[in-house]
Specification:
The protein is of the alpha/beta class. The protein has 18 helices and 18 strands. Helix content is 37%, strand content 19%. The strands form three sheets. The chain has a nine-stranded mixed sheet with strand order 3-4-5-2-1-6-7-11-12, with helices on both faces. A six-stranded parallel sheet has the order 15-14-13-16-17-18, sandwiched between helices. It binds adenosine-5'-diphosphate (ADP).
């Protein structure tokens, strides 16, 4: 029987977003509501967020949450509601959720406080009587919440979801006391990690179930190349590990109704061409003869951005074009600036974060490139599929699970939706880009791939049913 779930995340769409975690945390409540589950999401009240006019009365409060008073109220924005943890001494400051450009020094304390508040709400309920049966913790920022539940001997069930194992919430062991953690928990089979403590590891070992955001990433995480030191821990939980693919919000990402673009749909693709022309102009690109590829991404080596300098020159020489939107590693930003300068009219670059432009890019692009070295799920390849931009992806994680490679059999059967390549290096990426150009020139084949991708099942229906079944199995 469905019940109540407290989801805990450090970022939630539409309130604040730096990556895919926010999309997922924002989408889950309504997806779970379709299965009768009542999910509320607890997130920090960062500067500027908690002062909305819609905040309700206080639902939870303590006089001292890791150094200052804290309270929780329900806040709404654009039809979405969250439980916002107002703790000015921790969250009311400039500089993004984690500190920008440098991480805040007290992040371990800040997110331990979020986790502690979540565990307290899970055990004692909110002042309106709402008490969850399951606590669902996302990533290292919420990793201590299942641990606090376990240390308190609570019967509330818990789930930890790994959105990206590269971020592990490592902190000094000297903080144990400050984080309200028992010394007895500082062991290799609990939250000790190479002499430090890891909040993600804490979540992995103490939660009743562990999930990650694609079946392939779940398998990869048990291997040293992907597990980043936690592969053994993940393997020890393999009986309770579930790879559940992320979905995308089909209303926000709908080419037929998206207010940011000229609308289009299968059967009436005129708008796609208009978006392409507009995108070329927006990036100052010339009228290229080959495919216009787009990238919307954090600029990091995880995302394979360093491969572009080697792979793109041949691609543009054969008629392709590239538009990149992103920010991140200063060295990679510099590499891209050099690439754009070397190929005027062929390679365009926007450094920054721009949600509205990202919609125009998927709508105007012929292809979306995702050459990630690892990718837990990835969302931009799915936005590409939905908007008729053929994904060219590394065969890893959720990219491998969501894109059907244009191999000869898949092409013959008309089921291909994109191109996968492996290994993740400039040579095989270059080969994939050559295949992209070849397919682009074969118009009927290209159209069929586009159509297939645009009709692919990308929403939350299947995956939310899996989360619902998991919660149900925990409280049964
Ligand atoms: P990750 O969470 O590892 O960054 P995902 O593909 O799961 O990667 O999610 C990234 C999300 O952030 C997507 O919704 C993508 O469109 C968005 N995004 C990334 N960079 C930018 C940017 N510069 N401007 C706008 N949206 C961006």
């Amino acid at each position: 029987m469905p019940g109540k779930v407290l989801s805990v995340a450090s970022e939630v769409v539409p309130f604040i977003k730096t990556g895919g975690l926010a999309d997922v945390a924002g989408a889950l409540p309504s997806a779970l509501a379709d299965h009768g589950w009542d999910m509320r999401t607890l997130m920090p009240g960062y500067r500027g967020l908690q002062k909305g006019p819609n905040a309700s009365k206080v639902l939870w409060s303590v006089d001292d949450l890791f150094g200052g008073p804290a309270s929780v109220r329900s806040c709404t924005q654009g039809g979405a509601a969250v439980l916002m943890l107002d703790a000015p001494h921790l969250f009311d400051r400039d500089g993004g959720p984690y500190g920008d450009p440098k991480d805040f020094k007290d992040n371990a304390i800040r997110f331990a406080a979020l986790s502690w508040a979540a565990a307290d709400i899970a055990q004692n309920g909110l002042q309106d009587g709402w008490t969850p049966a399951v606590l669902h913790a996302h990533d290292w920022q919420a990793g201590l919440a299942p641990a606090y539940l376990q240390f308190a001997g609570s019967s509330v069930k818990s789930v930890t979801t790994v959105h990206n194992i590269a971020f592990q919430g490592n902190a000094s062991a000297a903080l144990l006391g400050a984080l309200k953690l028992p010394i007895s928990a500082f062991t290799p089979d609990c939250l000790e990690y190479w002499g430090h403590l890891s909040t993600l590891k804490a979540g992995l070992v103490t939660a009743d179930a562990v999930t990650t955001v694609s079946p392939t990433y779940a398998a990869e995480l048990m291997r040293p190349e992907f597990g980043m030191g936690l592969d053994g821990v993940i393997a020890s939980r393999s009986a309770d590990l579930h790879g559940i693919l992320n979905g995308i919000d089909l209303d926000l990402w709908n080419p037929a109704t998206d207010p940011e673009i000229k609308p289009f749909r299968i059967g009436d693709m005129k708008g796609k061409g208009l978006n392409r022309t507009a995108l070329l102009a927006e990036f100052g690109l010339s009228d290229i003869s080959g495919p216009l590829a787009v990238i919307v991404s954090r600029l990091t080596t995880q995302k394979g951005i360093d491969l572009l300098s080697q792979a793109i020159p041949d691609f543009v020489a054969s008629g392709g074009g590239l538009a990149v939107l992103g920010s991140g590693d200063p060295d990679l930003e510099e590499q891209l600036k050099v690439l754009a300068k070397a190929h005027p009219g062929k390679v365009g670059l926007r450094i920054g974060y721009d949600d509205s432009l990202s919609h125009r890019m998927f709508a105007g692009g012929d292809a979306v490139l995702v050459p990630s070295r690892f990718e837990p799920c990835g969302l931009t390849q799915m936005y590409g599929l939905r908007y008729g931009a053929i994904p060219v992806v590394a065969a890893t994680g959720g990219l491998a699970d969501t894109v059907i490679d244009a191999n000869p059999m898949a092409l013959a059967d008309g089921v291909a939706t994109g191109i996968q390549f492996h290994p993740v290096d400039a040579m095989s990426f270059g080969r994939a880009l050559r295949q992209l150009s070849t397919l682009f020139a074969q118009r009927p084949v290209w159209r069929r791939m586009q159509k297939r991708g645009m009709t692919q099942h990308l929403g939350w229906a299947t995956s939310s049913a899996k989360y619902a079944a998991l919660y149900e199995s925990l409280i049964a």
